[in-house]
Design a protein that fits this description.
Blueprint: H1 6-20, E1 25-31, H2 32-36, E2 45-51, E3 59-64, E4 67-75, H3 76-86, H4 93-99, E5 102-106, H5 110-121, H6 130-152, H7 156-177, H8 185-195, H9 197-207, H10 212-229, E6 237-239, E7 249-251
Parallel strand pairs: 2-4
Antiparallel strand pairs: 1-2, 1-5, 3-4, 6-7
């Protein structure tokens, strides 16, 4: 674990000093693992610079005092739009980044307001429609069928590609069902353990499967578990009307 030492402090001072002279800069945030206090030997020092107007650079990678440094540039309008789109959404990349960030410099209060909105976003309940959930349930069955087919053919790569799609779908539908959202893998493991420990155990068993047959059986258990969590199997007949949005028609 890399501690918040004199070198990191020096890097922060240099970046802030360089950025604050620009009248285009509204705020500078320290983001990523260093801001969270979780930096290790693989980490770089990440910054988000919020601007009034677009600059030529979108992203910058450089070395300062022997450390890799990455600087992201976004206008305040772009960040505002991302935060608006992410409220109640499954994907909350900008919100999560800003919620964990350290505000290092602001030309006015708008930078702090962005972080306040991000903090509200990460505790908002994920929205979903009945049609979305129906399509998740359909996809689980579809991916499982394809995985069974590839397991029978001993096509290991195709099997695991289908398994990857199935597991991603299962994770997304469980998160939606519990009002949660996608996060970085190390955090997502904890979230899944909290909302559905049985699912987490099934995932561990799948990834630890000794052979293809065991992995295939593990996928089937995952689908059975998630299907039960969502209220049972698909209706015997169903359809989604074109342009229906949330409207769902199904018949047993």
């Amino acid at each position: 674990m890399i501690k918040f030492n004199d070198t990191i402090s020096s890097i922060i001072d240099k970046v802030v000093t360089q950025q604050r002279v620009s009248k285009n800069v509204i705020g500078v945030f320290l983001i990523g693992s260093v801001a969270r206090g979780q930096a290790d030997k693989y980490s770089d020092v990440d910054f988000l610079v919020v601007q009034r107007h677009r600059s030529p650079d979108l992203r910058q990678q450089l070395q300062i005092d022997g450390y890799p440094v990455e600087i992201l540039y976004n206008t305040i309008d772009e960040v505002e739009r991302y935060l608006l789109e992410e409220h109640g959404a499954l994907h909350r990349n900008t919100s999560g980044m800003l919620a964990d960030a350290r505000l290092l410099y602001q030309a006015d209060d708008r930078a702090q307001e962005l972080q306040t909105k991000a903090l509200a976003n990460v505790v908002s309940t994920t929205r979903f429609t009945e049609t979305e959930m129906l399509m998740h349930r359909y996809s689980l069955v579809d991916f499982l069928t394809d995985a069974h087919r590839e397991a029978d053919a001993h096509n290991i790569i195709a099997f695991h590609l289908n398994a990857q799609l199935l597991i991603q779908n299962a994770i997304e539908v469980l998160l939606k069902n519990h009002g949660a959202y996608l996060q970085q893998p190390n955090r997502l493991v904890t979230v899944l353990q909290d909302i559905d420990s049985a699912f987490s155990q099934l995932l561990s068993e799948f990834y630890g499967a000794r052979d293809l047959r065991a992995a295939d059986a593990g996928l089937a258990k995952i689908v059975l578990h998630v299907t039960r969590q969502l209220g049972g199997n698909l209706p015997g007949a169903w359809h989604v009307a074109r342009g229906a949005g949330d409207e769902l028609a199904a018949a047993a």
